[in-house]
Structures are given as structure tokens and as C-alpha cells.
Amino acid sequence: MLKVLCTAAVVLAVASVSFAATVPAGSIHGNYIEARTADVYTGPCFANGEAEQTGREAVFGLNPAKAVLIVDNRADAEQRLALQSFAKHMGGDLLAKVVKVDYAPIELTIQNGNIHGGAAKLTAGALAEIQTRAMSAADHVCGNEEVWYPPLTKTEHVMPAYALENSYTGDGLGETWHNRFKRSGFVGTFQVPVE
Taking the domains of the chain in order of start, what are their residue ranges? Predict the structure, then answer.
């Protein structure tokens, strides 16, 4: 069973929009970060080796899945409901079975405000963390790497990133993980039209 922790979708909404009385005209947009326990930027030799072995967990700022939402604790009651609704909309089937909603201070920092640099950090209190850097020539092991698995939710622009840190220590999924130093991240942007 795929287990997903949806922090990024919630963080993204907080970073871009105040969900108080009205939603801004046009669109909701922001930065996106995701990390999984399997390589997303890889070649078939690695991707096939991880199938059904590892890579069942993901943390993202988005099969039947158990999910935990972490909502920024600075949001008021109305904003919290709006953020949960937005995360479920963005996550689709991955967030159909939310088993717990946690509240924690959330910070998403893109180094120098430039997603193309690949360096970003997401913290959700002590519950979850992602830290990435740009891919380098040393990250090409097979020589034919590509984005093997797309992001877990629709993005406007996204690129693979090297996950220096990918952890979840909450109690809502019945397990925790701490994965480091993998080609398992994405950094990018999202934009959703307001209906």
C-alpha cells in the first residue's frame, strides 16, 4: 500500500494565498517540493530493482493510500478547512483516505527564490522534513537516467532534485521513515485556476 504524507500541498497554499474571506481572482499558485523513498530520477536498472521493495512512502508539500495531512498551525479555523480541501483537490485519489490531520509550523524555503537551483527545504515542525539540492553529474550512475516516476500531483513546472533529507516521524501512518541521499525529489511550482 502506498503511504503518503501530504505536507507540500498544504504548505504551498499557505505560502501563496490567504484563504480568509475571499479567494483571489485568477489562480492559486506557489512552490512545490516532494520526496519519495524510491529514486524518481533514475534508469531502468535502478527503477526495476526498487519495484515493490522500497519506495512506498512519499512526503509531498501531494493506488489506495493512507495519508496524513499536516496543516500550518498559524492558519485560523477557516483557513485550515480551506487548506485541507485544497490539498484533497490537488492530491486526488492519493488523499481519499486521510487518517489524521496534524498541525505544526510549516516552512518552505527555496534557496535564493530560484527553483531552478534545486536547493529547497521544507519543515513541518518535528513531523516531516525534506531538503534538496540540484542534480549534478555525479548523480548519473546508469548514464541513461530520466524522470522515471512523475510528481504525485499536477504541477506547472517541476524538475528532479537530489533529496538530502526525507523524513516523517509522525504517528498517523503506523510507521516512520528517514531516507537521505537519493535521487528522489522534485522542486517546482504549481498553479490552479480559481473556479
Answer: 2-193
